[in-house]
Amino acid sequence: MTFAELHAELQKLKAQGLLRERRILESAQGAHVRVDGRDYLAFCSNDYLGLASHPALIDATCRGAAQYGVGAGASHLIVGHSEAHHKLEGALAQFLGLPKALLFSTGYMANLGIVSALAARNDVVLADKLNHASLNDAALLCRAQFLRYTHLDLKQLERALAAARGRRKLVVTDAVFSMDGDIAPVPELLALCERYDAWLILDDAHGFGVLGEAGRGVLEHFGLSDPRIIYMATLGKAAGVFGAFVAGAEPLIEALIQRARTYIYTTAFPPLLATALLASLHLFSEEGWRRGRLRELIAYFKTHLGTARWRLLPSDTPIQPLVVGDNETAVRLAEALRARGILVPAIRPPTVPKGQARLRISLSAAHSKEDVRRLCEALKDIERTL
Ligand code: PMP
Fold first, then answer.
1. Distance between CA 47 and CA 363 in Å, rounded?
2. 90 is in an annotated binding site
3. Ligand 1 centre distance from Cα of residue 377 (Å)
4. Residues 111, 160 within the same domain
5. Which residues form the Aminotransferase class I/classII large domain (predicted)?
6. Active site residue: 81, 85, 206, 221, which one?
């Protein structure tokens, strides 16, 4: 693109109300944040358990820095794989009851690495249309045939699997859909993958730490485990820190170490984050009340919201999307909330389908009932006046 074309595109985005802008966060993440010099009640982050600024994680980070310094200094395969990373991989595998885990620097990189290590030209990647962008980019990068099925349409998926008989197949899905909050029908997906001999990649970025009694995510939620499942989750959401991992059968993990380019050709994330994450895993069980509180807040929000004009999508996860339709209304609604001291992001295309702009309300164990009540009241008040 030329400079003039870039400029024209920016002008067009601005005119359409689609220009994305960044805010400056001046505090730690939490229920109450300071943004651009003002205090807000916030429903924006993926810090679902309220661990991002937990004192135990801050302590563990400082201990990690004292022991390992601040930079990993190299990729995992050179000399960046510290004892802290290694312990964390062991702890994650043990926590999930899976044979092995492998850390990646981000969820985006994990998805690129896994998919392109397992699929290539002539293979088929079958993906839910509402999957996260990183899974789509991964499918494009690996040059396999990329087929996207309508959200949760298992009949369509089955037809595509049947048509791809004899070829290597990878079914990829968000376990909890990041903009809708609904949970993928994993048992049914697994049954299809068994019938048609396909891998099943589950991206549990939004379920890990949240779903299941112990926070083991979507596998615990459905009581499932199967060697054809490739389980991936991020560590910058409920775990409160940064990074991602994949867990599964031992040969799979060994093969990813040899083949996943986003694992091999990048600096390992700082070991101090691994020490923080070990503390965070400890809190998943030590402070299990956080999941209980979160569930109560989700139920409270759903029963108290009561707006007639906008549609709350059916979701039992902390992601509560209020669909308003057009981009302008979504932005006006977010601005009206902001004027009342409440931050909620307006999500517009291309992140969500056209005509389905929404507020993505995310709840956290860091919130109180009073915080959620304030949000519900503000939305009702805006509905009366907007
Ligand atoms: N998968 C899903 C479903 C996500 O929502 C996200 C992050 N928004 C990612 C992957 C990427 O994870 P990370 O932020 O660690 O790159």
1. 9
2. no
3. 31
4. yes
5. 39-379
6. 206
User: From CA 209, how far away is CA 218, in angstroms rounded?
Assistant: 9
pTM: 0.96
State yes or no: pLDDT of 18 exceeds 90. Answer: no
Q: How many domains does the chain have?
A: 2
Q: Is 215 left (phi over 0), alpha (psi -120 to 50) or beta?
A: left
List the catalytic residue out of 82, 105, 116, 178.
Answer: 178
**Residue that is last in its domain, among 268, 286, 304:** 286
User: Which domain covers residue 241, as residue numbers?
Assistant: 55-286
What one-letter code names the amino acid at 178?
S
Structure-token pair, residue 60: 């563990």
Cα separation values, 296 from 27, 85, 359, Å: 26, 34, 21
Q: Which two tokens stand for residue 197?
A: 């001999």
99: in domain: yes
Backbone phi, psi, residue 247, to 5°: -135, 145
206 is catalytic: yes
pLDDT (tens digit, 9 = 90+) per residue, 241-268? 999 999 999 999 999 999 999 999 999 9
Q: Are residues 206 and 328 in the same domain?
A: no
359 φ, ψ (degrees, to nearest 5): -95, 130
